[in-house]
Amino acid sequence: MVLEKMEMFLDNLQPMDLMRSEKMSFVQLIIPAESAHRAISYLGELGLLQFRDLNADKSPFQRTFVNQVKRCGEMSRKLRFFKDQINKAGLLSSAHPVIEPDVELEELEIQLGEHENELIEMNSNSEKLQQSYNELLEFKMVLQKAVGFLVSSNSHAVAEETELNENVYSNDDYGETTSLLEQELRSVPSNQSGLRFISGIIPRSKVVRFERMLFRATRGNMLFNQAPADEEIMDPVSTEMVEKTVFVVFFSGEQARTKILKICEAFGANCYPVPEDVTKQRQITREVLSRLSELEATLDAGIRHRNKALASIGYQLTKWMNMVKREKAVYDTLNMLNFDVTKKCLVGEGWCPSFAKAQIQETLQRATFDSNSQVGIIFHVMDALESPPTYFRTNRFTNAFQEIVDAYGVARYEEANPAVYTVVTFPFLFAVMFGDWGHGICLLMGALILIARESKLSSQKLGSFMEMLFGGRYVLLLMALFSIYCGLIYNEFFSVPFHIFGGSAYKCRDTTCSDAHIAGLMKYRDPYPFGVDPSWRGSRSELPFLNSLKMKMSILLGVAQMNLGIILSYFNARFFGNSLDIRYQFVPQIIFLNCLFGYLSLLIIIKWCSGSQADLYHVMIYMFLSPTDDLGENQLFWGQRPLQILLLLLALIAVPWMLLPKPFILKKLHTERFQGRTYGILGTSEMDLDMEPGSARSHHDDFNFSEVFVHQMIHSIEFVLGAVSNTASYLRLWALSLAHSELSTVFYEKVLLLAWGYDNIIIRLVGLAVFAFATAFILLMMETLSAFLHALRLHWVEFQNKFYHGDGYKFKPFSFASITEDDD
Question: Rounded CA gap, 437 and 441, in Å?
Fold first, then answer.
């Protein structure tokens, strides 16, 4: 009677949107070819239909619309080329394009081709002009530097000289430090001695190897002079500035000249003829300077024209890229559809939420009307063999918690969603490990800053770490609020206790116990109204007291959350109509867990309420080793020993209850179902037999008793051992909380207070800086991450393994909103 009333009450409850995934419908679309493109485009804007790939066995090149996809890919390449050119030119593409009339894909393809050809031609001309400019610039520098190495027979040399040891002399010192080469040239003119030279310019990084190669090729019969160029020269291909060195090589003989020219060509050195006549040198220099000025003007005009063309492209670049992405996505989706036998209609299949069927039908009717098609689009619901995708409607607040659950595994279709409870339990368990309301306020300020700048940050491109932090801003907000709450319970503000809710319940017996242990204190009033009494801080019993409190609290929280997981497995089994799981899985599991660890939780609460000194370790150990022995001083209530014997027997019975009945009942049901089906095959079509999940053909081959029994045995052993290990795993709440508290105390007492004890402002400032650094980077960053990961593990392993399968797949509708820059 009670169970019937309870089931009636549960049936009358309104379903939660996030508790179970949305009901999905498997639909088929038959679309006339003339309206297919518009229909898929409209569905992409709606974003509520996930298409199945009906051509999965075909390669991308065998599909119907492969040419259109190639065209879109080619246009994407051109748009990326424009974007690279705009970035190289230092221009910014407009994020908000100028409103212009929409263009068709064919017109856009023609425009992009024209723009590309124009840009390629401009780039080619610019490279040629830049190369000519570089050559003239190099010639000018060679003329300026090489004159210093050349001395005619009728005049004195005036310029700087660089010998093999690369010593550079200024013009003022030149008269005092004349070279041997100058002395020889004064006495013997070059045209009479047969001494010749080659001048040129080479990148500075190759000079040493170039000189060594020349020395070896000529066997030392040459004189190499070099001087650094005054200006860097731009490489027209890479647009990088390159440092170069001017050189002059003196040699004798035609054979040496041939070798030197080949080496210059191999090292990429540019050679330029420099006349020995001063008049000719000046004349050539004037001509070079004149041509350089002309080329500079031409280059500037070309750059202005190119930038103007790029700017006009930049105004529409974002719009064009989005348009091409959409078109490519539409044709990729059309490639997932099949033509019917008449080749006039496209047939598509997919999943949509049941609530969206009316919207999809309305969208398809609008597509038919806009495309002036004489035939409407057929949309109807079909039966599906495969499991539907999982779709939860989330908002900005719940999305981050749903992502935490989905990182473990996507929920099976319509199974209970842990994210509903994770919204509260995840930040709370984090706060149990992180409890300090000073640190919680710091986290709260960070979360509020992210939420306040939400609209601005959501439109920016963030780094990986900042993007993760921004995505979890509401998780951070709840973690901060719960940390403040737990910090008030622990009475810790950067590890310092405060008398926030009134005075302490304890006072000193005499004047000598100001900082002594608890034996010197006596209770003189009601307990501290909220949280831990501040007088425990600094007492000798502080650590044993807090250890006992947090350890027992961790067990209580763990048993409560594991019970919640088992209860959710009941609701799953009830929802799917699986009475076997309720009778032979839920019931023995809830009995086993609570007969052992539920009983331990009860003992903890009774001990807290009664103030008993009973040793719970002794009680639990001897409950197994000698359950019939007298408990003595460890007895907490009347009838404890027979209750322990009863609970132990129930726990022992629960293990075979989980293991044995279910496999044998499944075998019996399968045999009965198979026998019943053998007499009804004639009245059922072959197609129905194949499609029906409960048919004899599908079950007779799939059912394997030994496999089912082994699976059930593994599941039972896993639960029994997991009940112990999972309860012990929740003790990490105690360990992390203790570590956080002790670290805070160490930084406060051994850094801040120690520095404040000195009467020196510099030491105090240094101590304050070290304390702030340790708080920010160790306690607020590393400890936050550590507590986050431990809370994550408690939810994924200890909580979700009681009921959550997580073997579903996400609903991924065809939507233009989900297209990103990386889709190309």
Answer: 6
